[in-house]
Write a structure and sequence with these properties.
The structure holds 3 protein chains of 3 kinds. By secondary structure, chain A is α/β, with parallel strands linked by helices. In chain A, 34% of the residues lie in helices and 28% in strands. Chain A has 8 helices and 12 strands. The mean pLDDT of chain A is 89. In chain A, the strands form 3 sheets. A 6-stranded mixed sheet of chain A has the order 6-9-10-3-11-12, with helices on both faces. A 4-stranded antiparallel sheet of chain A has the order 2-1-4-5, covered by helices on one side. Chain A has a two-stranded antiparallel ribbon with strand order 7-8. In chain B, the strands form 3 sheets. In chain B, strands 5, 6, 8, 10, 11, 13, 15, 16, 18, 20 and 22 form an 11-stranded mixed sheet that branches. A 10-stranded mixed sheet of chain B has the order 4-3-7-9-12-14-17-19-21-23. Chain C has one domain (72-392). Chain C has 10 helices and 19 strands. Chain C is globular and about 65 Å long. The chains are: A alpha/beta, B alpha/beta, C alpha/beta.
Amino acid sequence: MTALLEVKNLQVRVEEREILHGLTLTVNPGEVHAIMGPNGSGKSTLSHVIAGKAGYEVTGGEVLYKGEDLLEMAPNERAAKGVFLAFQYPVEIPGVATMNFLHTALNAQRKARGEKEILTPDFLKKVREVAKSLNIPQDMLKRGVNVGFSGGEKKRNEILQMALFEPALCILDEMDSGLDIDALRVAADGVNALRSKDRAMVVITHYQRLLNYIVPDVVHVMSKGRVVKSGGKELALELEKSGYAQFDDAA
Amino acid sequence: MPAVQETVDRVRQIDVDQYRYGFETDIESDKAPKGLSEDTVRFISAKKNEPAWMLEWRLEAYRRWLTMREPEWARVHYPKIDYQDYYYYSAPKRKELASLDEVDPEILKTYEKLGIPLREQEMLAGVVRPEGERRIAVDAVFDSVSVATTFQKELKQAGVIFMPISEAIREHPDLVKKYLGTVVPTSDNYFATLNSAVFSDGSFVYVPPGVRCPMELSTYFRINERNTGQFERTLIIADKGAYVSYLEGCTAPQRDENQLHAAVVELVTHDDAEIKYSTVQNWYPGNSEGKGGIYNFVTKRGDCRGHNSKISWTQVETGSAITWKYPSCILRGDNSRGEFYSIAISNGYQQVDSGTKMIHLGKNTTSRIISKGIAAGVSQNTYRGLVTAHRKATNARNFTACDSLLIGDKCGAHTVPYIEAKNSSALFEHEATTSKISEDMLFYCVQRGLSPEEAVALVVNGFVKDVLQQLPMEFAVEAQKLISISLEGSVG
Amino acid sequence: MNVALAKTDMKTDTSRALSEAFANVRERLPGTGSVAEVRQRALESFEQQGLPHRRVEDWKYTDLRTSMREVLPLAAAPDEAAASRAASILKSTAVKGARQLVLVDGVYAPQLSNLGKLEKGLAIRTLRDALETGGEAVRDQLLSSKQSTDPMVSLNTAMMTDGVVIEVSEGAELAQPIQIIHIASGAVPAAMFTRSLLRVGNKAKVTLIESFVAADGAKSYQAHDALVVSVGSHARLDHVRLMEDARDAFNVSTAFVTVGAHSHFNTFNLTAGGQLSRYQAFIKFAGEHARVETNGVNLLNGTQHGDTTLFLDHAVPNGASREVFRAVLDDRGHSVFQGRIIVRPDAQKTDAKMMTRALLLSDEAEADNKPELEIFADDVTCGHGATTGALDQSLLFYLRARGLPEKEAQALLIEAFVGEAIESIVDDNLRDIAVGAARRWLAARG
């Protein structure tokens, strides 16, 4: 079986500073990986590099997606091939209605894959279904993308897109930041509903709390730009007790 | 919603640096001798069979023009215009048309290519009509003359006069005399004065008291002939309690030399009347090296003469090498309202200096200005606007928001507001921002699968949404397409 | 947006009269050789343009051709009586703890000034001295204004008679503020032309106060001042200018400021005096990561006309600027605020904001605002806002319901309104001085 995502000895610089110093990670279809680590350990850098954000210089190593060189692909190409990043801070796009945005993006992806465009009635039906399951009111879909959304609404909008675009690899960057416990539960339920044997998820988080709701298969601890320890879900609980300090020396 | 998809498609289809209206129509034309003199003015007046008073009016304007100097305060730069190097009158040969069938088929084809159906039967034959789509009466102006005006009969039934101004001068001299030059006097400014001397055609609209014009009125202007200046004049009057929505579109062939367009538009609203005037300006902007393109020097002004009257300008400016244009409102009647909604996009070597004047004279007058400027390429884009409240304009209110977006680091976006308050009860609020198109927004869109160009088109369409909403639906769709085309090649 | 153009080739009476005046006083003006040449050229430039008028875009709202009409003859050097009149107003103007440098009728007055115990790194001399015997660098800097085409700057260059030249060397952090005081004492209407220079070395720290006042009996005079300032890198300059000239006086002043890398310039101008005044400041970012706050208040009543024109030139990347301006207008007061922010090509990451608000207390007052943005770089955050309106009637009513008489209630709200501009003065003492000046205006209003 080919791994869905293989990150090998990845080294990344931002401006003059090296953030990732040889990170290695393998994710297979159907798996949910959690990446935990203190602030500044390079978790968000990893998610941005996988999605293809500008401003990161890869100085060594490689990232393979379904065996292909991911770093060679344009960000929209990665999206069309099934790489989805749920942003820690989803941006607001004033004047662009959410519904319009979803339709435009979905069709762009389908076209890139050589698929036929989704017809408007089918699209509307699909959005309504997903929106309902995530408790997203229709009214929200008429508003500008994320404009005036609460923290919880923004995260639900990310999950809505995830459900709609049906990606193979989902990177969830600090999905729990800014959410109260109820909002977190709704978001996590949405994510869990999308777990499947063909789809993998990488859940990036600072706190163990999220992992009570999205239970990972594998937990990695990142520190200073490397994965310093990997284990089962019990590793997260261990971290909760003893903190990240123990890994400082290991890094 | 599908409009954005269309925009995106359009961006994909069209190659960089392609002006889709740049073709030329091959027809014979009847021209005045090149250059400008009293004889030219007499020639034009004679061609139009004008009454003596009209010729006198023109000559007076011409004589005054000779004493005036070209204005230099706008932030636009261009080589000195040689006013003797233009033709001031050009008309397709064959005139005095009895019906549309007599219009030169080449001209009809031109308008078809531009997507403007002139044949009423075609418009009426549209069997299935999407709900809410309105019919539009069109006046088509080709170079210096009006070639066809549609729906004349139906409008007549409603009492609405919609005809070429040259005809109105002959058929409704009293109305024309009463209003022409009363909003933009012949002495107003260099270009308006020039227009007063040599204007050849344009539209005339009169909506009688209490009438709501049964359809949108529209004029399409087309400059075809080489070295020809176009000087149209539009006069719209909404009498007491009347309402009319008027649309204007413009295109021109691609030519290496600069062509001159100096129009004047005058609007008058009486008590409780309203005029909504929308423009999609898409004159040829010049090529990617800045060669050619239209010099667009336009004076547009509305006079809210009556109480509770309203004038609303909406413009989408994407074309022209140079745009010099300030559609304004004189808020004379108490409780009158002026609005200005503008999208001005400049790319390549285009220069735009555009904005508005809101002149509050009456009591409780209100005005609203929403301006969205987008500069790309090596273009310069200036918003220039005046808001003034005179001593007696008690409780005048204005709200202004000007936002500028820069795409690339070689262009410029400028904001020059003049805010003058002369009484304490006036309340003015003005805000302006300038920023670049946000990298984070673009990345978000690209992560969702949009190409960088699609992402720019989407974000820009969002940026201008407040103004697009003001346009009649058909125009909004067209404007949206234009915006993306205009920004072609702006993302590196 | 004026269309017709003035005939600029016709010499005005003013400029003709001025040429003659210049010829008469030439002997009294300091500097020979190249300085005299610069003066001559400046005079020619002024003559060519004449007094600025409304068709000159930058002077659109302040037409000196109609309101000032003529440039008065140069004031006579102050005599003893003038000095004693000046001494008495000086008492109430001098800021405690500051080092006073006094110019009476445009001439440096050593007997009223304090040049004792100069702190280390501080050097002060007169403009006359600098133009006549000063080094080339100082002279060039004093004459750097020649790049400006502004007619009033040219006039100042041609006629400048005296002023002070202050140099603060690298690393010197002056504890004592410096106060330049312009006193008009003459009973005969006359004009004063002054120019001062402040050089703030790298890593130096300076506080500068400028005051414009009239001695008892001073009449219909014209003050023409220029201030040239250069701030080195990693330096700090706090500046407050208070213009409280006589109610029938004219004051036209220009400041040229360049700010070096990583420096901080905090400046505040208050215009409360004068019949007609214009304060124009040209502030240029010369080095990256500099920060500039320019704040101002115009307090005008009667038939006063006050014009504050600020030009912020972001010539280099990573600059930050904030402008806060307030105008309070009563009677037939007329305030003009023109704020122009230019962001040059490549001045990326510029962060510039401007806010101007006018408060009209009377239906005959007028407020003209022209906040301008001129932007040639894309990665910037720039914005401006402007509002015009009357005092909030509901607030006023609330205060009156609490027992405050109308004038007092107004005063309270006005003070809060101008406070928004004064608050951004960083230095506590300077802020108190500005508050004091605003209160003087309110008190005089009665």
